[in-house]
Design a protein that fits this description.
Layout: E1 6-9, H1 16-27, H2 31-40, E2 47-52, E3 55-69, E4 72-84, H3 93-107, E5 112-115, H4 120-127, E6 132-133, E7 136-144, H5 153-164, E8 170-174, E9 177-182, H6 189-204, E10 210-212, H7 215-227, E11 231-235, E12 241-244, E13 249-254, H8 257-265, E14 270-272, E15 278-280, E16 291-299, E17 302-305, H9 311-315, E18 330-333, E19 336-340
Helix pairs in contact: 2-7, 6-7
Length: about 350
């Protein structure tokens, strides 16, 4: 039987080990992944923990982010690591914590909180607590459809990985574009930071509405993806940047899918390495006609405004370029309607970081 004496508080440094333990119990992540989260993302003032006597039974982690919308800067608190021990679920503990985060958001002047539900059940749960669907994400599945082979993009991943295991950075020429491929076994901290700085500069110069990642943000994103077994693909001018996992799933950070298709479909004979040696890579020629790209759009982030806004503030977000706070064909929150769109097929999918986020709630 659960102890009814439950207390809530902002965690102290002495609570970190208990928080790591609850995260691992809930999400089963590796220690390396936990090190990334708890060494870089924990801001104790925007976290909440719940105890029953001396036992940590639930937690909520808030990570501050800055957004640019119609050339105006606003701040959001990203909620992750939401978890409750199984014996304590269904008692309203997480609902209480999400009410408490409102107070924290207003105290530190965050305009909104946002999160990414793992499934439709959690999406329905959050909607009852004032959250609205705010963005979509495009997902890509790429396979080879040649009648002469059963090779899939997952097999192509294994070929890349085999050559990367020698400790070299592979650079492939695709038309006039050079694309470098990186894997966990050979990439260094300096290389990751160089890539992260370049991504930050590219993002900072990109017009429109999107989250603003610092170089450190990008470093952690790339580090986490490498820990999870992704291969990183970068063109020399950063016009194409994407990641691929062992199942052949593609996450496109910059560039166009046709460029990815071209890269994965051409024949590679001479592949250069950092030590200027030549490696003969005999990939079979499938050609673009044999590459199938399946693109789907799925609901992604949810947002809840945490402050009362004046009409003057809301004026900043009016106009056809507002693509962040969208709910189906328009934006509706309890403080009023901000914007409306007749076409929701071009929703911005960049409200959230590309770091993996999962949730387990009561």
């Amino acid at each position: 039987m659960c102890n009814p004496r439950i207390s809530y508080k902002n965690p102290a440094f002495s609570d970190i080990e208990n928080m790591r333990r609850l995260w691992k119990i809930t999400f089963n992540d590796t220690d390396d992944y936990l090190n990334i989260i708890f060494s870089n993302y924990i801001n104790l003032d925007s976290c909440i923990v719940a105890y029953s006597d001396a036992e940590l039974i639930a937690m909520l982690i808030g990570i501050p982010y800055k957004f640019v919308v119609n050339k105006h800067y606003i701040t959001g608190l990203y909620l992750c690591g939401l978890s409750t021990l199984k014996p304590y679920r269904g008692q309203g503990i997480m609902s209480n914590m999400l009410d408490m985060i409102k107070v924290i958001s207003r105290k530190y002047s965050y305009d909104f909180t946002f999160l990414i539900p793992a499934d439709s059940h959690l999406r329905n749960y959050y909607s009852k607590l004032g959250y609205y669907n705010s963005s979509h994400i495009n997902k890509y599945a790429i396979t080879h459809t040649s009648l002469f082979t059963q090779e899939t993009i997952a097999d192509r991943y294994k070929i890349w990985e085999e050559y990367l295991s020698y400790g070299h950075r592979i650079t492939v020429e695709v038309g006039e574009m050079e694309v470098s491929v990186y894997g966990r076994e050979m990439i260094t901290d300096c290389v990751i930071m160089d890539l992260a700085n370049s991504l930050h500069l590219c993002e900072a110069s990109t017009p429109g509405n999107h989250i603003i990642h610092t170089s450190i943000d990008w470093y952690l994103i790339l580090e986490e993806k490498l820990l999870s077994g992704y291969l990183l693909f970068f063109s020399s001018d950063f016009s194409l940047v994407f990641m691929m996992n062992i199942d052949g799933e593609i996450e496109l950070l910059r560039g166009e899918i046709p460029l990815v298709s071209e890269l994965l479909g051409v024949v590679f004979s001479d592949v250069s390495c950092d030590d200027n040696s030549s490696m003969d890579v005999n990939f079979r020629d499938h050609g673009d006609s044999n590459i199938l790209i399946d693109e789907t759009m799925e609901l992604y982030g949810m947002v809840r405004f945490e402050k009362e806004y004046s009409n003057n503030f809301l004026e900043k977000f009016k106009g056809s370029e507002n693509r962040i706070f969208e709910r189906e064909c328009g934006v509706v929150n309890k403080y009023g309607k901000i914007n409306s769109h007749e076409n929701d097929g071009e929703l911005n999918s960049r409200i959230a970081s590309t770091i993996r986020f999962r949730y387990m709630l009561d």
